[in-house]
Specification:
Length: 233
């Protein structure tokens, strides 16, 4: 079915030299986003010392879910710097589903550990902006997974929207979920636990780290799906 929406090609209007510089910078940014997501997950895991308490598993599970799995599940569609660039589109979609399933499992486990820790300590729930936005992020993640099912099985669900438009909706909602997760991670760094573990200049560095993968993901999705006006020929 023909679509009434066109999507902007990357690097349009650039000279050859500027184009290759632009592509090199994009590749470097994507690779750096992979390293940042993995590094942030490993450092949070080390700081948490998993197994020392019920709460110690919460930051581990959540960082694995959002800093690692969700980041990798989106960046694998990138043409620059993705370790899955050799795979077919169908293979990337399957890997995307695998990563997003891990997101749901790890996030649910992280929520469970947090609730159990609060109940054991007899502390009230949802008293901080981090916890409130975290619940919103979990709900949005579940809804986004349901939206992904609609993209994969539009005919089975008897949806009237064209597949291309469903993919646009899915990508846009995915970006919103990722940005929600990024803000939630940043707010976690204002918690008593994190500020007791990391102080001084290192704390400011950690505060900025989650923002870099978010910018790369935002750039990837907007370049791939941002509609533009048709250019008259």
């Amino acid at each position: 079915m023909p679509s009434d929406v066109e999507y902007s090609p990357v690097g349009e209007g650039l000279g050859m030299r500027d184009y290759w510089l632009y592509m090199w910078l994009r590749r470097a940014a994507v690779i750096a986003a992979h390293v940042t997501g993995l590094g942030l997950t490993l450092i949070i895991t080390l700081l948490s010392r998993p197994g020392t308490s019920l709460f110690s598993w919460h930051p581990v599970c959540m960082s694995v879910a959002y800093c690692l799995c969700m980041t990798e599940g989106i960046l694998l569609f990138s043409a620059e710097g993705s370790p899955c660039c050799f795979k077919s589109r169908k293979g990337k979609v399957r890997l995307h589903w695998f990563f997003q399933a891990l997101v749901l499992i790890a996030a649910a486990a992280g929520l469970g550990f947090m609730v159990a820790s609060k109940n054991v300590s007899e502390l009230p729930h949802l008293l901080s902006w981090h916890s409130v936005l975290g619940v919103c992020t979990l709900a949005a993640t579940a809804l986004q997974a349901a939206c992904g099912v609609c993209v994969i099985f539009p005919q089975l669900l008897r949806l009237s929207s064209p597949p291309l438009r469903l993919k646009l909706y899915h990508a846009t909602c995915g970006l919103v979920v990722y940005l929600l997760a990024t803000v939630t991670v940043v707010l976690a760094m204002f918690s008593d636990w994190f500020q007791a573990s990391v102080k001084g200049t290192a704390w400011w560095a950690f505060l900025l780290l989650p923002l870099f993968p978010a910018l790369v993901v935002m750039n990837q999705i907007t370049n791939s799906y941002l509609p533009r006006r048709k250019i008259p020929r």
